[in-house]
């Protein structure tokens, strides 16, 4: 039992640590980075996107497994990981919008990274719309798995590539300035000892939520099969 719960205990510890430091402890910005107290959002905004990518990748993994060996359980895993990934993506978009309001003066400035993130999430919303439009379970799983693969690989041009090729206020774009990304030069040692645990903690929380949803879905299906 302890072996099964250790990672859940670790999740609690990491999130309590991240939140306590993020909200209560003053974390100075790196020299030359004019972020002030909004630097705290680094422990929430960026980990949300990291968690989203891990969850979407896991969803992709099970989608590929389903196409290789059709198994309803693989489809359930793929679907639920995608659902939690969407939630983390929305949280990443919201925390990014709040940060943008304080740093750039507007909730939504049409920045390349903002637009790309919104497009990426809309493509995943289309995944759920597509599945909901099909009545045949086998066709729903198969077509959904194929679209899932497409949606995942579209994350790279929309979130990681195109914003780096255009003018962007966001870190990582041409002409970007004013706030740090994952560049070691733009973060201090005191920030990294909180930021890296935050990556792990929020990602584990996403996995935990997904496993609960998967168990719930399996119980619902068993109940229906017995009726």
In brief:
This protein has 227 residues and is mainly alpha-helical. The chain has helices at residues 2-24, 45-68, 72-103, 112-132, 137-165, 189-226. The protein contains six helices and no strands.
Give structural notes.
With 227 residues, this protein is mainly α. The chain has helices spanning 2-24, 45-68, 72-103, 112-132, 137-165, 189-226. Helix 2 (45-68) packs across helix 6 (189-226) and helix 3 packs antiparallel against helix 4 (112-132). The longest helix is centred in the C-terminal third of the chain and has 38 residues, at 189-226. The chain is globular. The two termini are 32 Å apart.
Largest sheet: none
Which term fits the overall shape?
globular
Radius of gyration: 19 Å
Run of helices and strands? HHHHHH
Mean pLDDT: 83
Helix content: over 70%
Runs in which pLDDT lies below 50 for 5 or more consecutive residues are 172-181
Strand content: under 5%
Structural classification? mainly alpha
The N- and C-terminal alpha carbons lie at a distance of 32 Å
Number of domains: 1
Total helical segments: 6
Keyword list:
single chain, 227 residues, mainly alpha, 74% helix, globular
Produce the secondary structure layout.
Blueprint: H1 2-24, H2 45-68, H3 72-103, H4 112-132, H5 137-165, H6 189-226
